[in-house]
Structure formats: C-alpha cells, structure tokens
Amino acid sequence: MRKKYSLPRVSMASVLIAGLALSASAQQKNIYHKGWVDFNKNGKMDVFEDPSQTVDKRVADLLSQMTVEEKTCQMATLYGYKRVLKEEMPAASWKNEVWKDGIANIDEELNNLVSTTDRAYTEYSFPYSKHASAINTIQKWFVEETRLGIPVDFTNEGIHGLNHDRATPLPAPISIGSTFDKQLVRRAGQTVGREAKALGYTNVYAPILDPARDQRWGRVVECYGEDPFHIAELGKQMVLGIQEEGVASTLKHFAVYSVPKGGRDGSARTDPHVAPREMYQIYLYPFRRVIQEAHPMGVMSSYNDWDGVPITGSYYFLTELLRQKFGFNGYVVSDSEAVEYLYSKHHVAGDYKEAVRQAVEAGLNVRTNFTMPQTYIMPLRELIKENKLSMKVIDSRVGDVLRVKFRLGLFDDPYVKDPKSSDKKVHTPADDAMSLQMNRESMVLLKNQGDLLPLDKSKLKNILVTGPLAAEKNYATSRYGPSHNPVTNVLDGIKNYVGKDVNVTYAKGCNVVDATWPESEIIETPLTTQEQASIDSAVAQAKQADVVIAVVGEDFERVGESLSRTGLNLPGRQLKLIQALQATGKPVVMVMINGQPLTVNWENKFVPAILEAWFPGPESGRVVAETLFGDNNPGGRLPITFPKTTGQIEFNFPFKPASQASQGGENSWGKTSVNGALYPYGYGLSYTKFEYSNLQVSPEKENAQGDVQVSVDVTNTGSRKGDDVVQLYLKDEVSSVTTYEYDLRGFERINLAPGEKKTVQFTLHPDDLALLDKNMNWTVEPGKFMVMIGSSSVDIKLKKEFEVQ
User: Whole-prediction pTM value?
Assistant: First the structure.
C-alpha cells in the first residue's frame, strides 16, 4: 500500500534522507487485508492477528514472537512532542531510536498544551481532523516500520475535559463533585471518550479518585471531594462514560496519594499518616468500587509511600491489592518519576537500576517520566541479562499491556476511521450545552441573608464589580484539560447579562496576593500607598452603586499541583477589600473563585450573600451572572468540609464518633478552641425551599445478603423551580469495631417545579452496610442501622431504623 507521511520543516538533506528511507520501506507488500492486518509482515494470519481468536490466545502468540528488545519497549512511555519527542512527524532518525522496536504508549502527543510548566505548540492539533490524520501517520510508522508492528496506545489527560486544543472544557473536578449529578458526569465521560477517540487518543488519564481530606493540599481542586462513597459514585460514571466510547480510562493516583504529611505537595508528597483500616475505608474504597463496578483498563501508581513502603515498589499494592483482591485486569502506568523516587527520594534502592527491578517485581507495567524511554529500557534489559528479572515476570507485565491494546481493538483497526469526520465529533454544540449545564449545576450558594439573591436587574441602575478575580481568566484553563478555548470572565459575563439598561463599573480593588505573600499570612505588613489607593477607588465607586459584586479567591498560581497552602484565608489584601466594601453600607455579594475550601469566617459573619463558584470553565462569567440574577437557581452542594481554621485540620466527613466534638459537656471543659465547620459536607442553599416526608424503609428486618429499599418524598414548597440533592446517610448503631459516626450511602439530584413532589428511591446493598471487622475482613454484622435523609451531613430531616438479622 502506498504510504504518505507529513514531514516537519527541516533541512533539504534531512528530507531527502528521510524520503529515501520511507520510499524503500514503501515497497513492502501490502499488509492490510480484509478483516485482518499482517502486523509481523510474514504473509500469513498469525493467531495474534486473527480477530476471531480470544484475547488471551492472541496475547500468548504475540509474546512468543517478541524479542527482549521488543518486550522491554512495551514497558515504557514516550512523552509526546516537545516534552521528550523532538519531531512532530516520523523521521528517518526514528530507525535509530529505542522505539524502533515499538513503545507502550505515547503521552500527550500533539495536543498543543499551554501551561506554566509545559508549552507544546504544534500545527497538528487543530482542526481536529488534522490531528486525527497526524496520529494515524505516527501509528502507521509503528505498524509498518517496526518488525512486529505493535500499535501504540496514545494516552492523554482528561480530568477537566480532554487535554487537547479546543476540546470541550469541563469545570475543575471539585466543581464536578459539587454537582452530585451522576447522570451528568456519565455524559461528561462520554464526551471525553468520544473526543479522545475522534482525535486518535486511546487512553484517558481520568478520573482522579483521591479523597481530598486535607483542605491545605493544592490538588483539592483536581478531586471530586472528601467522601469516598461520593467519589466512587461519580468516578464510576466517568469511567463508564469514557470506556463506552471505545477508549481506556486510567484511574489516578493509586494509592493514599492525597494526604501527604501536613498536606504538603511539591517536593514533599510523602509520608501519609493513615492507619490501615482508614486506608481501606477511605482511600482505597473508591478504587475498589470503581475497579469492580466499571472495570477501567488503566491505573496510575503514585509516587508516595505508605507505612514506609513506596507504592510504586510495593507488590502488596500493585499486585495483591490491585489485581488479586480488587480484580484489576488492565495495565499500571507510573506517575512521572515514581520509579526514580524509589532511589532518589525514598532511598529504598541503592541505585536506579535497583529501583527499576523493585518496580517491575512489584507489578508496574509501564514507566513514565519526562526523560527518553531508554533511560528506563536499558537498565531493564541489563536486569534481564543479569537474571535479576525473570522472563516470566517480564512476560506477565508485557502481557497486561498487550491485553489492553487488544481490548481497545488496536490489533483489528489501529487507525482513526474517517479522520475528516472528527471535525464534527469534537466540541459540538451539544457538548457546549453539557459543559454549560455542568458549570451551572456546580454553583453552591453558601449564604443569602435577607434573600439578597437573586438580584433583580430591573431594580438596579448601578453595579460595581470588583475584586482581583473579576477580570481574571486563568482559572478556566487547566494543565490537565483543554486549552485555547475563549473565556468569558465574571466582569464581562455580568455586563453581557444586564446589557445597556444597567451601568456596570469595575475597580480591581487589590491584587490576588500582596508583595510579601505568603509570609504576610503570618507577619502582616501595612498597606502600601498603591494598595490603599486601589481599595479607596473601589470604595468610592461602591458608594455610587446599588449593589457590589466582589469576586475574590485564588487564581491558578495559588492552588493546584505543587501549590499546597499553609493558610486558607483569602490571600493577600482581599479581606481588607471586603471589609472596606462592607463598611460602605451597600449590599455586598461575594463570589468566590477558588480551588479549595477557604476559611472565610469574617466574610461569612458580615457579608450578606456568598456564592461558591470554584474554578468554573470558560463560560464562567455567563454562569455566575445567570446564578446571581436567578436564571440559574444554585443547586450544588459542598463535596468537602470548610473548616473555620487550619488549626482544626483534620476536619472532614466522615469522621469517627466524638473525633470532631466541641468543648463543653462531661469531661470536656474550657473554652480554648474554635469548634464546628464553617460549612459542613453536603451543604448548599437554594432560591427555593424543599420539604421531606414519608420516609419508607423496606424490609425493616433483613438478612445480611439482601438489599434494603429506601424511598422519601421531596416537595418544592417555594416559588421557584430548583434542584435539590437528596442525601442518604447510614449509621451502624452497634458494631464490633469503631465505625464512622455515619456514612453517605446515597444521593440523588432532582429538579422540581414550585409545588411539585417527587418520590426518590434508594437501594442499599450489602456492601453499603459492610465494615472491616477485627480480622480486617469486609462483613455485614447483625444489628440495627439508622437511615437518615438530609439536605447536608448535619441537616438531617428524617430518620428510620431497620435491622439486619
């Protein structure tokens, strides 16, 4: 078959050399046949090339034909163009690179990422059809120019939407968690998967299943929340959605990654202080549930340790837990530099080669790092030659990778079908509508004193929009999501919404941080002349306004990977701005753009209305405006507890009995601490009101193997249409070991018109009732359980008991 390659602009000599090499190989006989591909180019259909054979037989046959060089190449990642790979398109030099024998996966290839840490401009990312054709060209090289023609798994990030130029954007995962909308998350997963498939990606690194239990941790913004059941439910839907589209989903980050000592990220990221029972019940629970119920094809191993053992070098985590107990049957890829850390950070290996041996023995399939793949492959080959790694182990690790490639259909049709159609499959109007709905549903109303919100634009003549996040846009684009989508900031969103009938003025008020931040959090410095003048300008304009909308919080440089904080107040001079605005006597609405809970105590006490917008997507301005003016009735709920001070941390849900108790009462005297949550888990207000009634639990007596049916009636008793998130909590009243005070075991987001009533149904399965007994076995113990229905983890409306016999 005639082959066409698109070459980058290089010297004429290079083009001629490349052209000669490619023309010579183009004279090979056609390897493409009806219903099969002759990957090894031997003129016959081998078992691994036969689509009618079982996957296991195909894997075994292919393994039997592979050399050590070819096997080890299936155990490493090649990072894409401008990360590691230097050429956009196949070049003659590739015949001299280690991947002449193939490669496991190419990550983030030609996605045109723009971020503070990576800039990878390419002409091949857009239009979408151009990228699909480019991926086909690269895949074609591996199929036709390597001996066995093993296709590449093209991986990419996807927690904010697919990490590709102008793909459909999603709000931050903490926003997704706030929706509590399982059906919408499924749709989002389908969008990510469909776009990946259309663009040529075959494996998406999403979702993140880490429970964000320490609010200081920078990557809270990238997690669904703190509760393992909630994370498992949403994560399951994201995986199912992605994989329904024919691409793999890879879970991140296995395991116990999200709670490093002190919440410290960056160069730390180690030493989680988590007891074994807590590890199973909180940190491993989402992974176990999602693996067993959604069957993801990938898992990413984390670079932290647990109880002195690095995860990526742990046979217990990567094999016993993951494969033998949870039933995972995909392949494990390391987080970047996780293998190297066995040697350089954890010091459990005397040199890098020993770190490689430990990781492979533990169960790692594919190593990833921002270095050339041979830095891993060569030590791996030496270990095999020295008989320090058996071929049985190597075959097992490579077999897992090949099995996923067969399941993905790469050995049946390795190319993007009809690349031209990709332009109609990526970022469609329907995708925009889904993204817009997710942003709307993620809005959480924290305070609304005197029903200040929603605003009535017909009664307003002058609005001041102020604050350092009002005209900012950078929060809407993530390192792990799409780039180059146009962003509407909050200021413009409000202007667009009210039109010319209302005068909208703007004053920044202050920067996100001051010159000495974060030191100014512990050693306050006086306002500079410029800072005072900026606040004074905002105050002067506030006095002329009918309402003040202050947009405050964090930008992308204040929260995220490596950006853990030691304090959680509004950064910089923002509180001083809020206080000065509040002192004018004008009604102040505070909109928070932030990626983690903030200790906004003064603000909560004195500012009449507060809207939590998290890190919304590019339509942030439109959605915030719609919410403030009532077109969007906020129905999001907090997926993470807001503490009053970092001194309370750890403070989260679920919690053990009395572990978050206040002072006062028997054997608890004194008045020395701030107690309780600022905003509890599951909390969120609405512009309407809901009533709960008729809680039914059936049967009231059940055996340990049966399901329990729960139903409750919910009525919108207000005057506006709105969403409610009905939450089911379950309390094990007496148990052989100490369990959590109560656990979230169900939630449903429903939409109700004024006066409308709906019956919400829940099913409690035995797994929902199970605990880890004294022997660390999951079991359902006989006894009484209390079903609690509420609008948050503390606002319990109805209770009813049932008994397991």
Answer: 0.95
